[in-house]
Structure formats: structure tokens, C-alpha cells
Design goal:
The complex is a heterotrimer of chains A (332), B (276) and C (290).
Chain A: E1 4-13, E2 16-26, E3 31-35, H1 42-50, E4 57-62, E5 65-66, E6 77-80, H2 92-102, H3 107-120, H4 136-148, E7 154-158, H5 166-183, E8 186-191, H6 194-200, E9 203-208, E10 211-216, H7 218-223, H8 228-233, E11 240-242, H9 244-249, E12 254-257, E13 262-265, E14 271-280, E15 284-291, E16 295-302, E17 312-317, E18 323-325
Parallel strand pairs in A: 3-8, 3-9, 6-7, 7-8
Antiparallel strand pairs in A: 1-2, 1-4, 4-5, 9-10, 11-12, 12-18, 13-17, 14-15, 14-17, 15-16
Chain B: H1 7-34, H2 39-42, H3 57-66, H4 68-99, H5 105-115, H6 124-134, H7 140-164, H8 168-176, H9 181-210, H10 213-217, H11 226-231, H12 241-261, H13 263-270
Chain C: H1 4-36, H2 54-61, H3 63-95, H4 101-109, H5 116-127, H6 134-141, H7 149-152, H8 154-179, H9 183-191, H10 196-224, H11 228-233, H12 245-255, H13 259-288
Helix pairs in contact in C: 1-13, 2-13, 3-8, 3-10, 3-12, 5-8, 8-10, 9-10, 10-13, 12-13
The chains are: A alpha+beta (332), B mainly alpha (276), C mainly alpha (290).
């Protein structure tokens, strides 16, 4: 129904290979998140799947059929753009109905579908307004409504939450996840925010410079990062990465330990130093520590910990939570 | 500036500005007033300003004696016709340059603009001879074609700048929604570009209406627009100031009104964007 | 976005405009070039044949040519000086806080929308006419002899008429540029103790430099081709005192039916226009990607 396969997909802009040969399998009904830093090619990849850009080489298969040279209108995919891309001169009703009109659907039937989609997304009260009269969250729902109504094989989301404020983002994240659970359609979601990736995905694809660094479930990526890049990218605050003598002592070029896997004490730990900044969130405290011989590290402690700037502190990593990486950056 | 300016300064500037403005506007004002005078009053010494017997006789005479309306109609047909034809050619061209730009797009645009800089007089003879050969001399269609060609660069340029202000993502969304190219242009692009298209139409009608070189050299009688009609007053017989004024007022009124609404478009269209 | 499909579509959509303009450019110019190498007079069709550059040499060598060049320079130069300086001053004035700014703008802009024959005839008959014109009346009221503007200073009179028509254009452009100057720059200068004249000279004028360049170049292109104003007022005369290069070519072509010479003159005009166009294209090109 919504199985997408990428084989050897390559994209060059002039001489620059933004995506040098990529393979990926997306199963029907999966919620896949493409995540990575700016410029890693995740949006480009999404647009290649959508058909808004031509591949330089390789094949894109949708449900087993080669869609590489099929125009976007015919791929039966729906895209929700970062800026929502609503038609400003049409009412919400007409916006959502537009794809049905393009497909030549009978007007009465189309109207029914529009009303159904509006109901699911709580837009019924706004059907006769124009996008200019809506808030950011409402506009986004209209964009999603326009996508749903087409009953596509897969939904493509291009950083849909970046334009919303933090509170709204949290709500919309839930709504999109719930939408996926009810529709069970394949969803491909692009974001640079690893929190969105972790909370929403069935499967995460971590990209850097057009390469897939790792593909896996959120917990797989968290517990078993395949290389230094993924280790440092997933998890907030960032994993502490240490090289030099301490790494060599464990037979690795780099070792990493997450802030939440370090125990603290006043003395007697493996690493000693003093607190530079203590960030108190109430639920947790993040201590930034200057460790002798190593440098800055971050530790997560309980909300009631009273250490503050200047205090001496001693850190001990939990032995089974230390990740080891070889000279090529890959996990050992 | 958000500062309060002394009322005296403001008054001073206002007087100066209004003086300059009235001086510049004066010939037009004078013409307007003269159009309502009899010929005798028009050349009376000392000149009559406001207090004379206003009459419409000149407006009537210009139509009765010289069939003013047919020239007016020609101007309308030529201006509207060349604009419509220009739009037909320019909208697709501007679409492709705005939404599918290539490496050569900028050069192409510059080249188009450069065709407007060719001195008309240099090609007068070939065009004249070609028109005779094709039977286009003194025809409205001939003028529509020529005026379309000389204004095409400006129409393309203006539409291009307006199209560029439309977010490309909206057109992509239309494509994802299953729209063919025709549907995309018809249902999404054009409605969004209506203000820009309207501005372009306005400016172009003004330019075509006022175009005097080709409309005078390529017409004699049947296709002659107002430009030719007015220039025939250049070697007059007898008293004619009042009639000239009436004819002038009717010739310039539509354009003055349109022009006052199109100042911004003027800057955009005629400086090719070099000044913002 | 650019896919193969959209690029192909774009090429098709561009072609009508490109083809039409290509034909419009090439065919007439090629014919003009062709004619310029021949002796071809519509009144004497039997005296035909190729004379190559003779038309050019005789045209350029004729006294009419050089006086036409001088007249052209005077016309273009005169109008430029009046419109640029006047434009700056008027733009500065309109930019000040005044009452009724909208109306002032409307009145100042108006002359640009008057079609050239109307503008020329208004000035010729109602203002400048030595018997019935307003200027004559004014002179008489002051006890002076009325001045025959178009008879005695034809070129200067035409400069006045054309400058009147183009002043609004320059003003509008310069006003737009002026209003894009951030007031903060000027306020900073004022805090630094700069008097109004210095603020104008060191901040406003450089900011306007670009707009002034554009105004000069665009107006030059259009001014070089001025014909109707001359045709309708002085017909190039008296004698050839108000004959510009453009009018000279027109005269040869239409009045003397001397196609060959007119064509040669036309080519000369094209070369001159191209020189200006090169500079204009550079000024515009810098801004096209904005």
C-alpha cells in the first residue's frame, strides 16, 4: 500500500553530489523520520521521493513499481510543506477540496470528504475562512487536511512544526502521532529536531552529508549508536565524548557516556573537577563540569541536587553504559 | 521622521511644494480651462482665467467636425489589443523565467530589455516597406502587432518581478495535488498574480496609448489614433485653441486618471527594477 | 524546483516571446543594413545599385550630420541637466513634511502622462505662440516685446518642452530612492553634528547616485529617439536649427524618400544607442538577481 524503496538514489547539483548513492526500505504503514543537521540532504531526499526533483541516478519504487520518472501529480503521495503552502486566494474548504477537484471527483462527493477531513482535524468552524485569517496551528491543520483528503499511499512532512511556537509544537506532535495511529498510512517526516524524531518515529534515518549514518528504532539508536556522529546527535543533552588516555585505557579511540549515565559524588569518583554552570529545571539539574585533564562535560542529576557553580565534584560513569568507538568513528 | 516639525517649517515647505507643483501642472490646467472657452475668449487679451462663459461647444465641435470618436476608438483598440496580445505571449514566458530559472535566464531577460533600446527611426524604413508589402499600413492590426512587440519586454519584465514574489512552494503544492501545468497556471498562479497582472496591464495601456512614433508614421486615416489626430493640429487654419484644448483634454483624461493610480508600477516597469 | 518535465515546459513557454523578439530585432535591422549599402531612393527607383560605404561617408561628411549631432547633444544634455537637478530638488521638497503631499505628487507626476503631441502643441500654441500665447501676454504686460520661442530659439524651446515631460519621471524615481534611505542614517549624522547641507552631500547624494545613474541612462535612451515633439513644433527648423540625428534620419526617409542615406543614418543611430545601452545594462544587471 505504501511501501517505498530507494535503490542507489543519487542527486547531484552540478558537480556537487548532495546525495551520493543511497539505499533505503520503508515498509507500508511505518512512521519514518529523516533527521540530521542542516544541509545533510534530508529535505532533498524527501523532494526526490515526492517527485519535485529529478534523481541524477538510481530508482525510486512505490509499491514495487518504478516511479523514478513519474511526475509528482501521479505518484499518489501527499506533501505537507514547511510553510504549509496553502492557496491564499481560496477558502479552507476550497483548499482542502483542490486535490479532489484536480482528480475530477464529483462535487457532492468531494464536499463530503472535505467535511469528514475537517471534522477529524477540528476545522469545521473555519471552512469558509481564508488562510490569512487563520493561526499557525490552524493553517497547519488545513495543510494536513488537504493531504488526508487525497487518501495517498504515503504522507510526506517537510519540517512541519518548525514555524510553530514551543507549546503548539508539543500539541501538534501528539496530533500527528495520533493521526498516524488512526490512518495507519506510511508517513515520512523530515526534521532537524531529534526530540521530534525520538518521540514520533517507528524508524529513524540519521543522515549526514547525504549518507545514511544509521537506520533503526529510536531506542536502538539511543542504546546502540553505530558511530560517533549518531551517538552525539541523538540524546539531549549531548553525549559526552572523550578521547585520549581515558579512551585508550578502554581500548578505543573515543569513548562516550550520556549525561544521564554518570553518578556524582563529592569525591572518590573516576573524574574530578568543579561545576562551572548548574542549570536547574526543577525536574532535573544539568551540571556543566570542568573535568581535570579532559575538559567540559555535562551530567544530569536529580532535581533536588544542590551543587552550584564553583563546587568541587567527582564523576563516575556507569560502566555498562560506556560506548566505545574505533579510529574510524564506528562503534566497537 | 517621527519628530514633531515646527508648524512654521511645515507651512514654508508646503507653500514651496504647492508652488512648484502648480507651476508644473499649470499648462494642463490652462488647457482644461481653455477647452470650455469660445475661440474668441481663448485668445482674448488679457487672458481670461475663471470668469468667462463656460461652454461645451468645443467638445461638440471636435466630434461633429472632425469625428473625434473614431480616433478615440482607434486608440482604445490599439492600446487594449496590444496589451492583450502581449499578455498572451508574456505570461507563459514570465512563468518559465520566474519558476524554472536556468543559468541563462538573467541574460535572456537582459537581452529582451535591450530590444527596447533599439532606436525606432533606424528600422522605420524596413517596417514601413514591409507593412506596405503586407497590406498592414494604416491598419489597426498592424499597429497592435508593432506596439505589442515594442512593449513586450516591459510586460515580460513586470510579470516576472510579480511572479517572483509568489512562493514557489504553493505551485509545488498544486503539482502534488495533481494539477497539470494548465491547471496550475489557471487555478493557482493567475488568481494570486491578479494584482500584478492588473498593474502591468495599466502601465502598458498607458504606454501604448501615448506611443507617438509608430502610431503617427504607420497610419494615415482609418487606423489613426488620437496621437495622429492631435498632431494634425500642428498646421492649423484659423482660430483653434479652444478646440485643440477640448480635443487634448479628451485625449489625455483617461490616461491621467490611470496614471495617478499607477505610480508605483511606473517606477517598477520603467527602471527595470534597478531602483527600488 | 526543476525537473526535466518542468524544464521542457519552460522552454516551450518561453519560445513565442523569444522568437517574436528575435524576428523583430533581426529582420528590420538586417534590412536597414542592406539598404544602407545601396543607393535607393523611392522617388528615383531606377537609380539603384550597391554603393557600399558611400552612403555612410556622405552622410557623416555632410554639414547637416554634424549640426544634427550637436543639436542632439544639446537636446539630450539639456534635458538631463534640468530633469536630474530639478528632480533631486523637487524630490527633496516633496519628501518634507507638507500638507496635501498626495495632491502635490499628483500634480508633479501629471506631465509624464500627456501624450507627446498634446504636450508639444500645448506649449507651442497656448504658451509659446508669439501672438496669442500666454508667455507673449506676460511679456506684453511687462512692457516687453513678445519672444518668438520656437522661431528664435527652437532647440531651447524643445528642451523646455521635453524637460517638462520628463521631470516627473526623474522626480518619481529619485523620490522612491530617497524614501528608501533609512532615516536612522540621517539622524545619526545629525547627532554627530552635521548640518543639513553636509548631510545632503555626504549621505543623501551617494545614496541617490545609483538612482541618478539609472535615470540618466534610461532617459538618454528615450531622449535619443525623440521625434514627434520636433515634428509637431518646428519640423526641424528653422532651417535645421532643431534637427537632431533622429529627425535627420526621419527627414531623409520620409520627406526625401532617400532610403539608402536614411538607412546609413539609422545604423549610426543604432551604434550610438548601443553604446549607451551597454552602460545601462551593466547598471541594471547588477540588480537583476535581487
Amino acid at each position: 500500500m505504501g511501501k517505498i524503496t530507494l535503490r542507489n538514489v543519487t542527486k547531484k547539483f552540478g558537480e556537487v553530489a548532495v546525495i551520493p548513492s543511497l539505499d533505503l526500505d520503508i515498509e507500508d504503514g511505518e512512521f519514518v523520520v529523516f533527521v540530521g543537521p542542516s544541509g545533510c540532504g534530508k529535505s532533498t531526499l524527501l523532494r526526490l521521493i515526492a517527485g519535485l526533483e529529478d534523481t541524477t541516478d538510481g530508482h525510486i519504487l512505490i509499491d514495487g513499481m518504478d516511479a523514478t520518472h513519474v511526475p509528482p501529480a501521479k505518484r499518489k503521495l501527499a506533501m505537507v510543506f514547511q510553510s504549509y503552502a496553502l492557496y491564499p486566494h481560496m477558502t479552507v474548504r476550497k483548499n482542502i477540496a483542490f486535490p479532489l477537484k484536480m482528480a475530477g471527483m464529483d462535487a457532492a462527493l468531494a464536499e463530503k470528504k472535505v467535511e469528514a477531513a475537517a471534522k477529524v482535524l477540528n476545522l469545521t468552524a473555519y471552512l469558509d475562512r481564508r488562510p490569512g485569517q487563520l493561526s499557525g496551528g490552524q493553517r497547519q491543520r488545513v495543510a494536513i487536511g488537504r493531504a488526508i483528503v487525497r487518501e495517498p499511499k504515503a504522507f510526506l512532512f517537510d519540517e512541519p512544526l518548525s514555524n510553530l511556537d514551543a507549546a503548539l509544537r508539543g500539541n501538534m506532535r501528539l496530533e500527528i502521532t495520533e493521526l498516524h495511529q488512526s490512518l495507519k498510512t506510511t508517513m515520512i517526516y523530515v526534521t532537524h529536531d531529534q526530540v521530534e524524531a525520538m518521540t514520533m518515529a517507528d524508524k529513524i534515518v540519521v543522515l549526514q552529508a547525504g549518507h545514511i549514518e544509521q537506520v533503526g528504532t529510536p531506542l536502538e539508536l539511543y542504546n546502540h549508536p553505530a558511530n560517533v556522529f549518531v551517538a552525539g546527535f541523538i540524546g539531549s543533552p549531548r553525549m559526552n565524548l572523550i578521547g585520549g588516555v581515558d579512551a585508550a585505557a578502554l581500548g578505543a579511540t573515543t569513548i562516550g557516556v550520556r549525561p544521564e549515565h554518570i553518578d556524582i559524588g563529592l569525591s572518590g569518583g573516576k573524574w574530578n573537577g568543579h561545576v562551572t554552570v548548574a542549570e536547574r529545571l526543577g525536574s532535573d539539574t544539568f551540571l556543566h563540569v570542568a573535568v581535570e585533564g579532559i575538559g567540559p562535560m555535562t551530567v544530569r542529576a536529580g532535581g533536588s541536587v544542590l551543587a552550584s557553580s564553583g563546587d568541587a565534584i567527582s564523576l563516575t560513569p556507569q560502566a555498562d553504559k560506556i560506548h566505545r568507538f574505533g579510529p574510524d568513528g564506528k562503534a566497537l | 521622521m517621527a519628530r514633531a516639525v515646527s508648524t512654521r517649517r511645515k507651512l514654508g515647505f508646503t507653500v514651496a511644494a504647492w508652488t512648484v507643483a502648480l507651476l508644473l501642472f499649470f499648462p494642463i490646467l490652462w488647457t482644461f480651462l481653455t477647452s470650455f472657452k469660445t475661440e474668441a475668449v481663448a485668445v482674448a487679451q488679457p487672458p481670461q482665467w475663471l470668469f468667462f462663459d463656460w461652454t461645451f461647444e468645443n467638445y461638440v465641435a471636435v466630434q461633429e467636425q472632425r469625428n473625434y470618436f473614431s480616433f478615440f476608438l482607434n486608440s482604445v483598440i490599439i492600446a487594449v489589443g496590444s496589451t492583450a496580445l502581449g499578455l498572451l505571449v508574456a505570461i507563459p514566458a514570465a512563468w518559465s523565467m520566474a519558476f524554472v530559472p536556468g543559468a541563462k535566464t538573467k541574460d535572456l531577460l537582459m537581452w529582451m530589455l535591450s530590444t527596447k533600446m533599439m532606436p525606432a527611426v533606424a528600422v522605420l524604413v524596413p517596417i514601413y516597406l514591409i507593412f506596405i508589402r503586407l497590406g498592414l499600413l494604416d491598419t489597426r492590426i498592424g499597429l497592435v502587432i508593432v506596439l505589442m512587440l515594442i512593449n513586450l519586454p516591459i510586460i515580460v519584465w513586470m510579470l516576472y518581478t510579480y511572479f517572483r514574489e509568489i512562493p514557489g512552494e504553493i505551485l509545488e503544492a498544486a503539482r502534488m495535488d495533481g494539477a497539470t501545468l494548465r491547471s496550475e497556471i489557471l487555478y493557482v498562479l493567475t488568481p494570486m498574480a491578479v494584482p500584478g497582472i492588473a498593474s502591468t496591464v495599466l502601465l502598458n495601456i498607458i504606454l501604448a496609448w501615448n506611443e507617438a512614433f509608430w502610431t503617427i508614421t504607420l497610419t494615415t486615416v482609418s487606423a489613426a489614433p488620437l496621437t495622429k489626430f492631435i498632431s494634425s493640429f500642428s498646421s492649423p487654419q484659423g482660430l483653434f485653441y479652444a478646440k485643440l484644448s477640448a480635443a487634448s483634454v479628451m485625449a489625455i483624461a483617461p490616461i491621467l486618471i490611470m496614471g495617478w493610480f499607477s505610480q508605483k508600477q511606473l517606477v517598477r516597469g520603467l527602471t527595470f527594477g534597478a531602483v527600488k | 524546483m526543476s525537473t526535466e518535465a518542468s524544464r521542457t515546459a519552460a522552454r516551450w513557454m518561453l519560445s513565442p516571446a523569444v522568437i517574436l523578439l528575435l524576428i523583430w530585432m533581426i529582420v528590420p535591422l538586417a534590412l536597414t543594413l542592406w539598404f544602407s549599402f545601396q543607393r535607393y531612393n523611392l522617388l528615383y527607383p531606377d537609380r539603384a545599385g550597391f554603393v557600399w560605404f558611400q552612403n555612410y561617408t556622405s552622410f557623416v561628411a555632410s554639414p547637416a550630420f554634424w549640426s544634427a549631432i550637436v543639436n542632439t547633444l544639446i537636446l539630450v544634455g539639456g534635458v538631463l541637466v534640468i530633469t536630474v537637478i530639478g528632480g533631486i530638488l523637487i524630490a527633496l521638497l516633496i519628501d518634507q513634511p507638507i500638507w496635501g503631499q498626495g495632491y502635490v505628487r499628483i500634480m508633479v507626476i501629471a506631465p509624464f502622462f500627456i501624450m507627446p503631441p498634446v504636450a508639444a502643441l500645448i506649449w507651442k500654441n497656448m504658451l509659446m505662440n508669439p501672438s496669442n500665447g500666454l508667455f507673449a501676454n506676460a511679456f506684453a504686460a511687462m512692457g516687453m516685446q513678445p519672444y518668438d520661442f520656437l522661431g528664435q530659439s527652437p532647440l531651447l524651446s524643445i528642451v523646455i518642452i521635453v524637460a517638462w515631460q520628463w521631470l516627473p519621471f526623474a522626480t518619481l524615481i529619485l523620490l522612491t530612492a530617497l524614501q528608501s534611505l533609512s532615516s536612522e542614517q540621517l539622524e545619526a549624522a545629525e547627532m554627530d553634528g552635521a548640518p543639513a547641507i553636509k548631510r545632503f552631500w555626504y549621505i543623501m547624494l551617494p545614496h541617490l547616485a545609483r538612482a541618478i545613474t539609472v535615470v540618466v541612462l534610461i532617459q538618454t535612451i528615450f531622449l535619443l529617439g525623440i521625434l514627434v515633439e520636433i515634428l509637431v513644433t518646428t519640423n526641424g527648423g528653422p532651417g535645421s536649427q532643431s534637427t537632431t540625428l533622429t529627425f535627420l534620419v526621419y527627414k531623409e526617409a520620409i520627406l526625401d524618400s532617400d532610403v539608402g542615406t536614411a538607412a546609413a543614418g539609422g545604423v549610426v543611430a543604432v551604434i550610438l544607442a548601443n553604446i549607451v545601452a551597454i552602460f545601462l545594462m551593466r547598471a541594471i544587471g547588477k540588480n537583476l538577481d535581487a
